[in-house]
Design a protein that fits this description.
Elements (H helix, E strand, L loop, with lengths): L1 H24 L9 H6 L4 E7 L3 H16 L3 E7 L13 H9 L5 E5 L1 H4 L8 H18 L4 E6 L5 E2 L4 E2 L7 H14 L3 E4 L1 H11 L1 H7 L8 H14 L3
């Protein structure tokens, strides 16, 4: 009888450990994008985006969706800069662009810099990336304490030897930067749209050639790629 109780107790302990571990991997369980609710109530919403060259395409694909669904209720501000990271290059970094974004006092801001903060030649450590991200968040909150801040992880990047592109090699620690984004979202109770796992699953399921069709150069998805993978996730976390 004692042995049976010990076995049951051990099993319950293992179940608790597994459940706890799973919970710790979810950055913001149950959180939803709120600005969609405002749009559904016919309110006007100002939406800003801060990020890298990736923002240059995905943000416009999202605009197409929102304009079609909510007509002229949205005002869009794009502060994505090609080649930028959170703290470089000078004058074009996230820390520079956030000042411009804050001056418009948006209701919503999307933020993504992890993919270029992880770029080895930029020499931005995970700790520095976090400090920069926190500063960007705080600046936006100062401009509007009620702003909805949405952090994003983006797509899987791959090396393309035939194009002499070493995107993955030059971002060997990218998963650590993405993990930091998830941690900041959880600690600060912010919305995180975690796109990275979806792109990774697509690559695993469909293969490299299919992935190259929607991410031709190994780092920048096409508009069709975003419509296929990113927009469905945004819609899912908006419901």
């Amino acid at each position: 009888m004692i042995n049976m109780k010990l076995k049951i107790g051990y099993i319950l302990l293992l179940v608790t450990i597994v459940i706890t571990a799973h919970a710790n991997t979810v950055s913001n369980p149950g959180k939803k994008i709120h600005f969609i609710q405002k749009l559904e109530q016919s309110e006007k919403v100002k939406i800003a985006a801060l990020g890298t060259s990736l923002t240059g395409t995905w943000y416009y694909v999202m605009q197409d969706w929102l304009k079609e669904a909510y007509s002229d209720q949205c005002t869009f501000y794009d502060f994505g800069v090609s080649g930028s990271a959170s703290s470089c290059p000078p004058g074009k970094s996230g820390l520079d662009q956030v000042k411009k974004a804050a001056s418009y006092h948006p209701d919503v801001v999307f933020i993504e810099f992890a993919v270029n903060d992880a770029y080895i030649p930029y020499h931005i450590t995970v700790e520095e990336s976090r400090k920069n991200l926190e500063s960007i968040i705080d600046t936006m909150l100062e401009s509007n304490p009620d702003i909805e801040i949405i952090l994003q992880t983006m797509n899987l990047v791959i090396d393309v030897p035939e194009m002499e592109k070493a995107h993955s090699t030059n971002r060997a620690e990218l998963p650590e930067y993405l993990k930091m984004y998830r941690k900041v979202a959880k600690e600060r109770k912010l919305m995180l749209v975690d796109h990275y796992p979806n792109w990774k699953r697509y690559m695993k399921k469909e293969g490299r050639d299919a992935y190259r069709e929607i991410v031709p150069d190994g780092v920048h998805p096409t508009a069709e790629g975003y419509r296929r993978i990113l927009i469905p996730e945004l819609k899912r976390v908006s419901q």
